[in-house]
What we know:
The structure is a single chain. By secondary structure, this protein is α+β, with helices and mostly antiparallel strands. 26% of the residues lie in helices and 20% in strands. It has a 6-stranded antiparallel sheet. It starts with a helix and ends in an 8-residue tail after the last helix.
Amino acid sequence: MATQAHCLFCFDVLAASLEKRPHLKLSQVEDLWAEYQGKDQKGPPPDPGSDQLEHDSDLEDGNDLISESDHDPEEVDADEDDLPAEEATKQPSTLRLPSISRLQAPSPASASTSSTPSSFSASSSRLGLDDTSSKTSSKTSFFSFGRRSQQPSPALREEQYPLFVTWNTISARGHKSLRGCIGTFEPQDLSAGLENYALTAAFDDTRFSPIQTAELSTLANHVTLLHTFTPCAHPLDWDLGTNGLRISFTYHGRRLGATYLPDVAVEQGWSKEETIVSLMRKAGWTGRSRDWRNVNDLKAVRYQGKGEGCGWSTWREWRAWVDQQINEAESAIKSAPSPPGPA
């Protein structure tokens, strides 16, 4: 299941890329977010990027921009046990605040490399759909390759998920409008996949211009981790509000496809049939709505996925707290007396 920490990580990756600085590791974000929440049992108030807001008619559509890439997950230092105050004073050379020692040498942002296309296998991202045609429509941009790719070390692999990262802008009245959404059905190491698609959705969604620094304060992020992929017996063999849907079909000699995330059809108030027609039109089909059943070789795969979102204000407040903790830790180390030299 996606978490707010995943969304905060995406924000940190995007802000760091725009500001040309290193970003925190996913594990650091998860630990520091838990620590931040623990300081106030009430937790932070809802912000304009949370899923509690009413959605606009121009929403994220769980879009059909899908890519494949892989990353080498990063290792993080183990948490250090908190020292009692009296013990801390005895060890000035190691004086550090809880969870902050990991941040004193932040990891550099991953190097940018081009990802190379890889064919879909029946056991992974194909998932029952025939997407191998070289004549895939360029109109739908059904496959878009990730910005950052590295070969993972098998010994360091972490939990993997197919995933989507969505950026929305928030209007003055609190409504969301899609700003970028790209994902993959190929399972990704979570830290690398989130980093990759946070940037790909922000900069490489061809329907939009790249996100700029000045837009950060208007953004909200949404992460969806996908699971339970099942080929449909027929195009209507799925449940509204539970399943996302991925379709492919042949039209004018081209293989087209598109997808909607699980919450899209319900948010838009569509029936199953209306959802299918909308997906087909997104993919590039221009036929009459009542003729959708006559399309050649229409295949569908249903899947599930639970998303989570957060807005700029949550990330900004949390990140300010993190920076304060780092500054306090550094000040404490600098002001600590030097250990005595040899007698």
